Amino acid sequence: MLKLISFMLLASLVASAQERTGDGPFEVSVQGGPFIAKGIYRVREVMNGVDLRVSIPTGKGKFEIDGFFANSDGVNYRIASLDYRIDVGPPDFPAFILGGVHGDFWTPPAPYDSQRYSGGWHFGGGFMQPLFGGWSAREDFRYRLGPGTSLLVGLGLNYQFSN
After folding, report:
1. Cis check: omega of the bond before 130, within 30 degrees of 0
2. What are the residue boundaries of the structural domains of the chain, listed by start?
3. 142-154 pLDDT per residue, tens
4. Half-sphere exposure of 110 (CA within 13 A, CB side)
5. N or C: less crowded end of the chain, CB within 10 Å?
6. What is the pTM of this model?
7. Can you tell me the distance from the alpha carbon of 105 to that of 3, in angstroms, rounded to the nearest whole number?
8. CA distance 134 to 120
């Protein structure tokens, strides 16, 4: 039921998104924040980590490729994601929605230190506040399904290369 509601919410947000024309600039960003997990084998509830992202423009949105890295209480956790982002806010305070797939790779603490792999999908959104030049403050979240359920929250800096 939660998956159906999540899909319907994401579909309605995408349908109501503003039309964008032309390709936008490439972007890179770095963020830090908590990874809040539930139901993942031998992973504690909250891990802080770093997220690195590259955004590639398309006609109406952007593909985003990112990696999240965390290490806490003997657990080494890595996430690779592919998202599609659509900007929906005004130019002076751009908000966005996103959806995508991810792969998780983690090593539980000893003596359970065999590598684990899993995948899933996620949706989320956030906003960017322009600062100066091509720099913006970026905040976003992703609600993730598989493995278990989790929330990934990030706050950091985004740089937009000029067209």
Report:
1. no
2. 2-160
3. 999 999 999 999 9
4. 0
5. N
6. 0.82
7. 23
8. 33
